[in-house]
Every structure is written in C-alpha cells, then in structure tokens.
Amino acid sequence: MNSLNDQEKLKQQRLANQTMIKEIGQEFWDRKKEVYDATLINCSEVHTELQNCFKKGKLWDRLTLCINMRDKFWDCMDQQKKLLNEMGYGSPLKTEAENEEILHKADIQYQQANEKDSL
Known about the structure:
- This is 7316_t:CDS:1.
- This protein is mainly alpha-helical.
- It is 86% helix and 0% strand.
- The longest helix is centred in the first third of the chain and has 41 residues, at 2-42.
C-alpha cells in the first residue's frame, strides 16, 4: 500500500512539474508576442510606407517588391525588438506605465539613430 502512495505522489509531482513547465513556456511566448506587437507599433510608419510602396510605388519599386522599403521595415523591426528586449519591455516586473515609457524611449532612440544616419 505504501508503494501505491509513493507512486501516486510521484505522478502528482510529475503533473505539477509538467504544468509548471507549460506555464513558463506560455509566459515566454506571451512576452515574445508582446514585444513583437510593441515593435510593430513603433515601426508602424515604416510599415505604412512599405504598404504604400506595394500599392502605389514606382514601377521599378513594385517590380523589385519594394526591396529598399522592405529592408528599412525589417531594420526597424530588428532594432526595435533589440531595444525593447534590452530595456525589459513586457517583463513581469514592469507595470503598464513602465512598458509605455520603454516603448516611447525605444521609438525616440530609433528616430535619433535614423536622423544621424541620414545626415
């Protein structure tokens, strides 16, 4: 009878561990999506420019699938994602107000970097 109790305890412990691992994995994907969504917000102007290129761009741009605008868009996405992750955006320890501040700071840093590049 003692071995049945031990087996049941092990089974319950395995189930608890599996649930914990699932929750950690879900938190990881939730944060990843949150950062991605925030990145899209900060790159929305460049995304709109890319969409306009596809719809109304010059013939050469459309024939090349707007490669210059696509590169600009993905550069924005990569830089924003890096900045947001470095600043801890979406961390469980951050409040909504802190996340908004981080989002704003990342956008300003990206804009300033682009102004320097265009000079």
